[in-house]
Design a protein that fits this description.
The chain is mainly β. The chain is 9% helix and 48% strand. A 9-stranded mixed beta sheet has the order 2-6-3-5-4-7-1-8-9. It comes from Enterobacillus tribolii.
Length: 126
């Protein structure tokens, strides 16, 4: 059996640019990519916390330390500057690997400052 698992996640990053006429993709600060394990040109799913839209594109690197999150091309219709996003990448692995897998999750504040990096998502309680 092959399972698709969360590999990397940027939790609540803020859109800093939306460029309809740029060639596709989502530009992400290289520090953010490193923290989450997302690679340049890797497929990503984006979940817009502010408007509920969900869409797919691929990651490209933005300048390290810039805090840039730029949604480009057609995807720019799905997010506006200031929107909060959850950006995820996934990996396929065997059932055995999946049972010990730990994703890389980076958490952010409202100014795209990375607050912490974790290898798990906290258990939700009532």
């Amino acid at each position: 059996m092959v399972r698709t698992m969360l590999q990397g996640k940027l939790h609540r990053v803020k859109v800093t640019q939306a460029d309809l006429h740029y060639e596709g993709s989502c530009a992400i600060d290289q520090d953010f990519l490193d923290a989450s394990g997302i690679l340049e040109y890797e497929a990503i799913d984006i979940y817009n916390v502010d408007n509920g839209q969900r869409f797919s594109t691929y990651a490209i690197a933005a300048e390290r330390g810039s805090r840039i999150i730029s949604v480009n091309g057609a995807a720019a219709r799905c997010a506006c500057v200031g929107d909060k996003l959850i950006i995820c990448s996934y990996v396929q692995m065997s059932d055995e690997q999946a049972r010990i897998h730990q994703p890389k999750v980076a958490y952010f504040d409202g100014a795209n400052e990375m607050k912490r990096v974790a290898k798990a998502i906290p258990v939700q309680v009532a």
